[in-house]
Amino acid sequence: MQRGLSPDQVADALGIDPSDLRAIETGAQELDLGRLTHIASTLQDPTLAPSARTMHLRIKGPTKLTGSIDVRSSKNAAVALLCASLLNKGRTVLEGVARIEEVNRILEVLESIGVSVTWSEDKSELELVRPDVLDLAAMDVHAARRTRSVIMFLGPLLHVLPEFQLPYAGGCNLGTRTVTPHLQALQQYGLDVTATDGWYHASVRDTDDGVRHITLTERGDTVTENVLMAAALHPGTTVIRNASPNYMVQDVCFFLQALGVEVDGIGSTTLTVKGLREISTDVRVAPSEDPIEAMSLITAAVVTNSELTIRRAPIEFLEIELAILSDMGLKFDLTPEYAAANGKTRLVDITVHPSTLHAAADKIHPMPFPGLNIDNLPFFAVIAAVAEGSTLIHDWVYENRAIHLLELNKLGATTQLLDPHRLAVTGPTRWRSQEIVCPPALRPAVCLLLASMSARGITVLRDVYVINRGYEDLANRLNKLGADIQTFFD
Questions:
Q1: CA 425 to CA 275: how far, in whole Å?
Q2: CA angle 287, 289, 290 (to 5 degrees)
Q3: DSSP secondary-structure letter at 149?
Q4: Per mean pLDDT, which range of 187-201, 237-251, 280-294 is the poorest?
Q5: pLDDT score of 349
Q6: DSSP labels, 272-324
Q7: pLDDT value, residue 18
Q8: What are the beta bridge partners of residue 417?
Q9: CB-based contact 293:71 (threshold 8 Å)
């Protein structure tokens, strides 16, 4: 049920009759350790595709969480590194990649065009080997249209193919997310793109190997990553101004350095890249921990008024969030800093204590790093709902996300939409159970899940695919802390 597999699928994968599977599940058939291990490894096999049934969650509250939980590796860094692996003709090994739906979709696309994808036996490592010739005509279009990350194929592919096409990018429904900054920046590498009938049609002109000075019209994460990938195979110098210094961009920079590409200015808005004519090396890297997941877990502790330790939190990308929470009255402790697996990202353990919160004195709004992360903004709507007073949430980036947060009202919150970008949240809230269909946006959907844990009774959250896009096994991980969340299917 957790994997979304039907009994017939599991029985077929194990090579047994469905009646034997039922006997095993009911305890009527004994198992030795060897068979038990075989069942466990089969259920964890990423090639065993879930059935088409829709997954739902049943959340019983109110909940008190306790204990500690590790922050897992970044979704956004993982998908960027998967796209960047197309630069390397050698063997790329990624350690600790989260097995989430967004990663699965990109892997499906990569495999369909010829990339060899191999998980280690314990699923802790992912090996990628690019073929000499990529077969874009065989691309899994269905998978590609379910993720916006495929737009990051533009940077690597413009050095590989003189002409190619990519399907329009999908992902969360957050309003207009323009690709114009990507196309403006990549024109300097000879890339021309026209958009027709659901496809980006790309052609590449010959250009010289001189210095490129590129000023991004938008300080976006994916556009910065796209230009970094294009610059990596440009045998010359590229200076990128107004670059995003965010966590996933830094991970791409660390990866390029491991490939032998010189990258200066990491963590700043000006990046200087000295590219190579060809990259063919065996490399092993680890994506850094996810600050958005860390904020999700902090929010889980706040909304349930619990004491919880969030381990391996990337503090550099949470400092503004924690400063705002401290001003709102949240009590928490931080351990001394220590290094992540990549040897560069600074981590801490955060222990959140039960606290009485008050509304923020000023509006809460995102800013490019080192400001409050745009993906962390929705969690402040849930936090504001448990605080005394009224808080203004200003999401100036996305047109639709504030609207999705109005779904919190179904659980008892008092949120008022002032315009498509501004939301007034008044607390404290007496959460109540409800049956809700997940909104088509990752972070607002997770906000509903977290708020449901404090609602008295049973809340049903339907069609949680969007949550699985960004979180690995979130329900079971919360259950280990004391939550009561059951997975079920139609």
A1: 48
A2: 110
A3: G
A4: 187-201
A5: 98
A6: EEE--S-----EEE-PPB-HHHHHHHHHHHHHTT--EEEEEEEGGGTHHHHHH
A7: 76
A8: 423
A9: yes
Measured CA to CA, the distance from residue 325 to residue 359 in angstroms comes to 10
C-alpha–C-alpha distance, residues 349 and 309, integer Å = 7
Which H/E stretch holds residue 191?
strand 191-196
Instruction: Read off the tokens for 258.
Output: 């491991």
**Which contacts of 331-336 are long-range, i.e. CB under 8 A and separated by 24 or more positions?**
331/355, 332/298
Owner of token pair 């999908």? 170
E strands in 27-145: 55-61, 68-70, 91-95, 116-119, 125-129
Cβ burial of 282 (10 Å; 0-12, 13-18, 19+) is: exposed
CB 328 within 8 A of CB 273: no
- At 490, the pLDDT band (50, 70, 90 cuts) reads confident
Neighbour tally for 170: CB within 10 Å: 15
Name the phi and psi angles at 280, rounded to 5.
Answer: -145, 90
User: Do β-strands 91-95 and 212-215 pair in parallel, antiparallel, or remain unpaired?
Assistant: unpaired
Q: 75-84 and 101-112 are packed helices; what angle lies between their axes, rounded to 10 degrees?
A: 10
Secondary-structure breakdown of the chain: helix, strand, coil percentages, each rounded to the nearest 5:
35, 25, 40
For 214, the token pair is 């590129």
Residue type, 349: D
Which amino acid makes up residue 486? Q
